[in-house]
User: Fold this.
Amino acid sequence: MAVRDRISNWVKPNGERAPVQAPERLAPPSFRPSGYRSAGVSAKGDDKFRIVFENSLEGIVVMRPDGRLLSCNDAAARLLGGASGELLGRNLTDWVVTEPSQTVNGVTVFPLGILETVVHRGGAGKVPVEVSASLIEGGGHPCLLVILRDITERKAAQDRLSFLANYDSLTGLPNRALFRDRLSLAMRRAERSGVPVALMFLDLDRFKVVNDSLGHAAGDLLLQHVSTKLANCVRKVDSVARNVDSETVTVSRLGGDEFTIIFEAIRGPEDAALVAQRILDSLLEPCLIDGQEIFISCSIGISLYPRGECDLDGLIRQTDMAMYRSKTHGGGMYSFYSLEMSAAVEARLQTEASLRHALQRNEFTLHYQPKADLLTGRVTGVEALLRWCRPEEGMVPPDRFISMLEDTGLILPVGAWVIRTACAELARWDSIGMPPLAMAVNLSARQFRDNHLKQLIADTLLDSGIAPSRLELELTESQLIEDSDKSRALLDGLAELGVKVAIDDFGTGHSSLSYLKRFSIDTLKIDRSFVRDITNSEEDHAIATAVVALGRSLDLRVVAEGVETLHQADCLRALGCDQIQGYLLSRPLPSDQLVAWLIGYRAKRSFLRGADLASPSAPMPLLSVADMDLD
Assistant:
């Protein structure tokens, strides 16, 4: 019986014999330490093999099929943690972890082929190895040739790649891919058990301000600080989740400043609310970065599963809706998903879809609200305000679509249309003999950051023939502060064109006033929140007084917004305010109605002159919109 035929009996299951074709017979080398000698190998060939055997960097072992060592080189001895002479006669499985022992015909067979396993080296620990075992013949007896390859570096590289594929390199938290995998598992377990799982989305409030003001390195440190806080908040949640372990609570970072938490086996929404509040309270503590205290808050959205019919992506969308609701309500709070949110989001998506076609369908129009000089009563200019008439709905309130324009980027083409249309309308008024007015146009943050803004303004003025000094661009304080160097360059460029710049809602933004000195600014507009109670609030009166005094000291024009009563106008005139704007004059009007209003106002404007007003102590009537819509 051939040797290979006998070996095949050992490795076949149930001891069955399988017919084996006689292979080409290869003469193996001899192994002197074992006492075996192969026939047909010359001494010269034997010496060449021994050179390779002894100098190989990989461990080479010759052994019986049951694992008993017959010979090994020095590399194998070092890997196994002993001298080659001490290892002979012992079983390789004393060090190498293999599959469960397989016994065939009473003989334990070492597994053939290639496998990855570990070598136990006693106190020296474990070494990952690749083991390749194949049959050979030695002196007419069956043997196994085993190659032992140390794969420590390869396993480390694989582990690193696995980490990068599944974990966030900055915080060490699971990333989006691993989050989705664990959420899928949690949802299946919740379906089987009927015990809900809670999903939380967390988004840091005003994180961009930290990045822009302190740099991305500080932003990274803040993200690491938040990840540690979140881990501490969910580490001991025995009162919230039953059977809590590393798989039932998962904190992940999806990217940017977005984090998620998966809670399994909760009792109900009150448990999720408890953890959410714990997180909000924990983040109230300031984070110290580069010696500076940073205060941060977050907006949290929460969804429970299973509730209703939704898949994994649906659950994620629901939770994101809840988080967005917290964000729009000022942040620093948590919100649970509700069906009403889906309806609101659906309505928003429909509105956004219609908004994308509104410009090409000519659904936008401009209304104009006049401004008047407080001393003479003369109308000095108007502010152009965007309006959208949606065919299936009618006039859409600006607070419903202006932010959408900004979020979708549509504000750039629509904003350009506003500037061109307002200047063209101003030129038309000139052509019909209307008095020369100034035109104020609001700029959004995205428009202000657009590199083509200056060229757009220059081209529009050239096309309309309007003097640059008659165009005034209104900005907010926060827009100027975000990138002060770029803001200064743009404002200087607009000043070179001769265009005026006004600060809208002055006093409601940043407290630093240094930008008034650095930037080219012509007008300050007192926010309506300070005008509303100016006649009966000492605080509002003091703020308005300070703004007017500041404007006078810097040679800036001061305009008060939201003026609705003669009392307010009289008070502002006494403070030295230059102009007013509000319902006392008129609501915003379409172009043709504004022209008609101007004609009527010029004949009756004396009502605004101080000499014609009753004494401040006398009660003043509130002029309604109808009173001022003069035909």
